[in-house]
Amino acid sequence: xxxxxxxxxxxxxxxxxxxxxxxxxxxxxxxxxxxxxxxxxxxxxxxxxxxxxxxxxxxxxxxxxxxxxxxxxxxxxxxxxxxxxxxxxxxxxxxxxxxxxxxxxxxxxxxxxxxxxxxxxxxxxxxxxxxxxxxxxxxxxxxxxxxxxxxxxxxxxxxxxxxxxxxxxxxxxxxxxxxxxxxxxxxxxxxxxxxxxxxxxxxxxxxxxxxxxxxxxxxxxxxxxxxxxxxxxxxxxxxxxxxxxxxxxxxxxxxxxxxxxxxxxxxxxxxxxxxxxxxxxxxxxxxxxxxxxx
Length: 294
Hints:
By secondary structure, the protein is mainly α. 75% of the residues lie in helices and 0% in strands. It has 14 helices and no strands.
């Protein structure tokens, strides 16, 4: 398997790990900031452990900015998941593709192709449908926090790509430690129950730790926009776990909007895989008849 295909596979693997976040966050009965802090503290250690051979500490502007964006995204995602449905929170994360499409050409020299813009228009349209449902004040706030989080996720992808010549595992671990530091005042307000600890450990070890350890390999080998769009399986599986565990389901318009987003990112992932296969196809040598000039 060539390096690009393996990177794409790693992105899908990361998405499977990440998909467990929604149900585990819903099952932990703590303040969202406390959940974010504990899961990021554990995740940072797991990333350093699993990627110990690849970690190289750097305090340059790009890895630090990647870490800061990652930490803020982690916090926003937990808050959004608590305030609105897990389906809304996870699909809104993919609004990051629009920010990346705009920023990547200038900041990374990674062109946004015409078909990317077509698909991104579908993503933006799908996200707009989330606001058609009748929402409580809490639900509206959750969607807004989710959209802010998507901007931080886009920033993390941009700066991780700018850091790809160094260690990508280091900014991911540092970002989680930053998130834990910001959440520290909330982490000791309530004593977690044994069920809370089970969920927190699952979030830190599986959802974030293992997920980001795999992602650290992939982000070096794919474009920033691909890193946002390819893990399209996560918005499908994440709400499914939550529905099976809690019965929570998105509204009709949110469901339709999420479907549009999923179609767009799935098509983009398939196109990426196709181009990867074409680019690695061996070129047949020209026959003597073709090379004869006379």
